[in-house]
Amino acid sequence: MKFTFLGTGTSHGIPMIGCSCRVCTSADPKNRRRRCSLYVIAAGQHLIFDTPPDFRDQVLSFGVERVDAVFLTHPHADHIFGFDDVRRFSTLQGAHIPVFGSPETIRLMRQKFEYVDKPSYGFESVPRVHFTEQTGPVTVGEAGITPLPVWHGTDTIYGFRIDADGKRIGYIPDCSRIPDDTLALLTGMDVMILDGLRPDPHPTHFCIEQCVEQLGRIGAAKSYITHLTHCSEHTELQERLGTTVCVPWDGQNVEL
Known about the structure:
Layout: E1 2-7, E2 37-42, E3 45-49, H1 55-62, E4 69-71, H2 77-80, H3 86-93, E5 97-101, H4 103-112, E6 129-133, E7 138-140, E8 143-152, E9 155-164, E10 167-172, H5 180-183, E11 191-195, H6 208-218, E12 222-226, H7 234-241, E13 253-255
């Protein structure tokens, strides 16, 4: 199993429009953060987790050539508004692509992208997908994907656990509280990737201190922080976190 961080930034992206702070103007490419997305190759299946506004740039920049399934954490703009570009993959593959999310996420996807289900368009004109409400574990080929319900402010949304090739990855890019039932699903993790927005507390996201605390409770073999704002410079944050938690960068590849 291997994965690529397609985006590690918050909803604004980094650099942020109209900002001249030292992180937004940094020459270090590790400080350029697209909106959050993850690409996983598991048991030979090519899986995408969220399709943010940067999705087209992400797949072109980091060599994504196939998508066998899409999993959506929640229907906020920074996680879904690149969805139309899934149509290039359904066209290339000549097939409908399954798209999984909570019942509420799928309901809103059908509203926001209502043209997808219209039969009047040609095959190549819209994403050819099968919207699927996910309420429990599903399999794509021999890869197992389990939804991880978490709190994002007052909303219940999903993270996901991916099981394949004898390995286990957890991915929760937006979160302010992890219920006990979900924590129980995060035992024996090889990799855990978790929301840690900024140094200061936030009502709908873990701050960096809370993220590190939760990652310590989960105890994965390797831990990563994501969904970072321009409040954190890459090298400085990594030095602060030491070897306990890794600070990823866009395009980083990890093979297990």
